[in-house]
Design a protein that fits this description.
By secondary structure, this protein is α+β, with helices and mostly antiparallel strands. It folds into two domains: 162 residues, Ribosomal Protein S5, domain 2 (2-Layer Sandwich); 129 residues, GHMP kinase, C-terminal domain (Alpha-Beta Plaits). It has ten helices and eleven strands. A hairpin with a 7-residue loop joins strand 9 and strand 10. The longest helix has 24 residues. The termini are far apart.
């Protein structure tokens, strides 16, 4: 048995903001993927994955919802038969490792599922997001459902607000010098503690004001520029966003990257932002000259995401 592949995702813009109803833009990232499998000679990782699927089965069997019905008997039988999730998506890196797993389980076991091939109306997208939010909450305590949605559909998704999503197109990549890239912090991040820090910060009126004004304004401008291919304007807006994140989301940025982050803003060679909830994993970068940035950040591992 080998199930279909589900890819990683990158939330280009909107981290934390989407929890509080501002815009976001998520794109599939095909360098990493996962699939459900069975093996005659499972590895230690595969056996652990099977155990985790058993816990997930238990969680799904206790879900009280009218949104979705799963074929739980089949799911249980497959787990007993040694099914596991074989994934190259790094865990705790902000690129949707649990999202791909959730998407694969929905795809295989949901009855009367919404498929990628049908006309994806706003209502269908919203229903899928709600289902995935319920499912992924098993992993994070609280989930927007966006990671599994992106992985399941494998198309860019524009989040206008909590209740308003649309599939969107992004400009095709150009052979330019500029790039969006990932910077590997080499630290595993945990989503739940980061979300807890954010929720505590939300009790502060000044933080809420910053989020609804500065953060949302720059995020919306970045999304608009990216979708329309306005590179010059995009980099200016990413710089503003990078400053706001450094000033207000320090606990989510690993300590050793505070200076690297600041240097990018001061030199204008590159700009960094959070990729997912932060605390480790990947940091997202934007640059006008990727070769130059690779040289400046030669002590770090960089991965190319998108060229412009």
């Amino acid at each position: 048995m080998k199930g279909p592949l589900f890819y990683a995702k990158i939330l280009l813009f909107g981290e934390y903001g989407i929890i509080k109803d501002s815009k976001g833009l998520a794109i599939p990232y095909n360098s990493y993927q996962g699939a459900l499998k069975k093996s005659e000679n499972p590895s230690k990782e595969a056996i652990n994955s099977t155990k985790n699927l058993a816990k997930f089965y238990k969680y799904l069997s206790q879900l009280n919802t009218d949104l979705v019905v799963f074929n739980l008997d089949e799911f249980k039988a497959d787990i007993e038969d040694g099914m596991y999730f074989d994934s190259s998506i790094p865990m705790g890196y902000g690129v949707g490792s649990s999202g791909a797993l959730v998407a694969s389980i929905y795809d295989k076991y949901a009855e009367d599922k919404i498929t990628v091939l049908e006309n994806l109306t706003r209502d269908k997208l919203l229903k899928l997001k709600q289902i995935f939010s319920l499912m992924e909450s098993f992993f994070h305590g609280q989930s927007s459902g966006l990671d599994p949605l992106n992985s399941y559909l494998s198309i860019p998704i524009l989040i206008n607000s909590k209740d308003n999503l649309e599939a969107t197109g992004i400009p095709s990549q150009k052979e330019g010098k500029g790039a969006v890239f990932l910077l590997d912090s080499e630290i595993i991040g945990e989503t739940e503690p980061m979300i807890n820090i954010f929720m505590n910060k939300m009790k502060n009126e000044g933080f809420r004001k910053m989020l609804s004004e500065d953060f949302a304004k720059h995020t919306d401008a970045c999304i608009d520029d990216f979708l329309h291919g306005n590179v010059k304007s995009l980099l200016g807006n990413v710089k503003s966003l990078s400053k706001v994140v450094l000033d207000n989301f320090k606990p989510m940025i690993p300590q050793k990257f505070h200076n690297v982050w600041q240097k990018g803003i001061e030199s204008n060679d590159y700009y960094l932002k959070l990729c997912g909830s932060g605390g480790g994993g990947y940091i997202l970068g934007f640059t006008e000259d990727f070769e130059k940035t690779k040289n400046i950040l030669k002590n770090f591992k960089l991965e190319l995401v998108y060229r412009f």
